[in-house]
Amino acid sequence: MSNPVTFKKENSSDEPYNNFVYKVDINNVTIGGFTDVTGLSVRSDVLEYREGGSHDVTHVFQNDLSYTNATLRRGMTKHDDFIKWIRNAVSANREAARYDIMITMMDRQENSTWGWKLINAYPVRWDGPSMMAGGDGFAMETLEVTYEELDFIKH
Q: Are 86 and 123 in contact (CB under 8 A)?
């Protein structure tokens, strides 16, 4: 059985962290230039059980955990590592395409504050850039990954 949680009172000086200072490591290599990282989510499904003879009581039990896919978005460059990774993931050797992804949020002084480790992640979707005549934006690529487990790390 896990230890009970002890909640601490927040001070008025506790400021929320910014969401724009972060780094992403894939297979222990820092990959830069991501504009978005979304989809960090865990959910506990519940199983409801109504007690026989007592219609005003419903017992609720924790069931399996599930994780949403994470999405990584960045400007497209000459590097083809995402494309190679998804090619490996759909090949016969899928186990070799599983890597841990570490997303680390930092404060304004670039000190690590929180981290999320996506364990045994592998790509399930790649979207290439949208082309628009007359546009002035950047070509963006998007990688969606699934993972087996999400670990929360407080630095």
A: yes
